Amino acid sequence: MYFGIDLGTTNSLISVFENGRPRVLGGSQPLFPSVVSVMDGTLVLGAPARERLVSHPEHTAAAFKRAMGTKKAFRLGWKQYDAQELSALILRALRQRALEETGVAPQDVVVSVPAYFNQIQRNATRAAAIAAGLNPIRLVNEPTAAAIAYGLQDIAAEGHTLVVDLGGGTFDVSIVEVFEKVIEVKASSGDAFLGGEDFTRALFNRLAQEFDLAPKTDAERALLWNAAEVLKLGLTRAQEASCPLPWRDGARALSITREAFTDASASLIQRLRLPIERAIHDAGLSRDEIDRVVLVGGATRMPLVRTLVARLTGKLPESGLDPDQVVALGAATQAALIARDAGCDDVVMTDVSAFSLGFEVARRVGDRIEQGYFEPVIERNTTIPVSREFVFQTTQKGQREILFELFQGEAPLVRDNIALGKLLVAVPRNRADYEIVIARLSYDSSGLIEIDTKVASTGATRSIVITDLTGGLSERELDARRKTLAALKVHPREGAENVALSARLERCFAMALGEDRVTIQDMLALFRQALERQHLSEIAALREQIGQTLDQFEAGYVR
Ligand code: ADP
Ligand code: MG
């Protein structure tokens, strides 16, 4: 028996691969809400804990997967837990469910994670599984697991599949190619802060406005939130939905139409577009080359998501498997694949790196050398295992050493990416004007990253393997990183237009690959310099010019 776990933001599932096929456990209620509550000093998990979200919000924690890998504290009564501990509690409950239903206590398991989880978040997930008494033999990206579930069901269907996964709190998109029984992920993209909850929030705000409700207490907010969730599910079934709301001195009758809901979620629908277009672009495809579209995650049940995806791809999404279960089914199948189970031993699969890896470099801007730029060496969506070489040159004559600092992320400046580790390489003085060092960066499927360097003039080599990826960075530093990523810094000198252009440059850098990235970084460097000099007419001219270049770039990008 092979077990797979979908550890979701909203709901988790455990499934088993047996007799050549996967199935989810849990009978008629396979979804295990990822909610933890404390009642009279004891823990309550799953469905009953979710009920307590409304009645005892101060004793209940939900959506903690969003804080995975951080030290964020969730207060339950008078005790505090972090996301890793809360996840371990859910995993332990799922393990217990499997033991009760199959008579086998799961040991080796495959656990799914969002494609956009970084190494710190992945390590935290792995640690949570170990704490729950499990042996996580592999972490699989959620859309990859979905593709495996669909791929195995209908392996004859060759071509490109677009997997769109909208869960409670995360959005993942990937392009998967099936060719002669090989399943390959060509690209993945997403938004770690977009999910069904946001649609509930949009409905919550619309209802508060339309029915003139101003919730004053946590309890009132919880009631209205609950009504919004009920109406959202109702609108999936019908054009119009209504429900009663107990409110202060009496009951109110709430009702809303699909049209009003679509209108209230316009900005969210807009945010669903970009990752889909980006994934298609990154896979080097045009939308006509997408052969099929698969929807995953409870929130893809909303008609407005189906409509949008159909419009963007020109295809009707498939719905052969239950969107809630697809990831868990794929995770168990992956476990069987790793064990080379007879039911699927002729299916091979490869994966891609979900983020770019690269080094900090200095750039020459005019006659100045500026530090702090990110030079991607392994770009996101490169098939792993992978190994790439990059040539570095000292920036000053007589320089004695080069510091290789490794980062992951999609931002043009290293300060906005995540630092993974560093390697200091000595270079001989006076051998040449400038010394050259060749660095090779390798990334394998188990997540190990290796840096090998060779000094060109002497042949001296050095290397390190980065395994403990949190190592070298204190929790405080990590926290500072995350805060930087979360908040777009606004320099008091800069006007709104300049902030907007800088943000656009960074967004375009994140979308671009290869040569385009160099061009965008050049423009960013020029623009920053102009801002620094506070030369208003120059800034305005640059803004105009860069804006036009970006227009062209973006027009070429959406094919
Ligand atoms: P996760 O992967 O984040 O755990 P799920 O895939 O279980 O999440 O999806 C949960 C989300 O799906 C919730 O926001 C829930 O409101 C939404 N959802 C579930 N069923 C429906 C439905 N029938 N219509 C609209 N939204 C739904
Ligand atoms: Mg999910």
Tell me what the structure shows.
There is one protein chain. With 559 residues, this protein is an alpha+beta fold. The protein has three domains: 2-194 and 267-352, ATPase, nucleotide binding domain (Nucleotidyltransferase, domain 5), CATH 3.30.420; 357-489, Substrate Binding Domain Of DNAk, Chain A, domain 1 (Sandwich); 493-558. The protein has 14 helices and 27 strands. The strands form seven sheets. Strands 1, 2, 3, 4, 10 and 11 form a six-stranded mixed β-sheet that branches. Strands 17-12-13-14-18-21 form a six-stranded mixed β-sheet, sandwiched between helices. Strands 20-19-23-24 form a four-stranded antiparallel β-sheet. Strand 25 and strand 26 (449-455) form a beta hairpin. Helix 4 crosses helix 10 (326-338) and helix 8 runs parallel beside helix 9 (303-313). The chain is globular and about 80 Å long. The model is unreliable at 468-473 and 481-494 (pLDDT under 50). The chain binds adenosine-5'-diphosphate and magnesium ion. The site of adenosine-5'-diphosphate (ADP) has 21 residues, from helix 5 and helix 6.
Secondary structure layout:
Elements: E1 2-7, E2 11-18, E3 21-24, E4 32-33, E5 35-39, E6 42-45, H1 47-55, E7 60-62, E8 74-76, E9 79-81, H2 83-102, E10 108-113, H3 119-131, E11 135-141, H4 142-153, E12 159-166, E13 171-179, E14 182-191, H5 196-210, H6 218-237, E15 240-247, E16 250-257, H7 258-264, H8 266-282, E17 292-296, H9 303-313, H10 326-338, E18 348-352, E19 357-365, E20 368-378, E21 383-384, E22 386-393, E23 401-408, E24 418-426, E25 436-443, E26 449-455, E27 461-466, H11 475-486, H12 496-511, H13 515-533, H14 536-557
Parallel strand pairs: 1-10, 10-11, 12-17, 14-18
Antiparallel strand pairs: 1-2, 2-3, 2-4, 5-6, 5-7, 8-9, 12-13, 13-14, 15-16, 18-21, 19-20, 19-23, 22-25, 23-24, 25-26, 26-27
Helix pairs in contact: 2-3, 4-10, 5-6, 8-9, 12-13, 12-14, 13-14
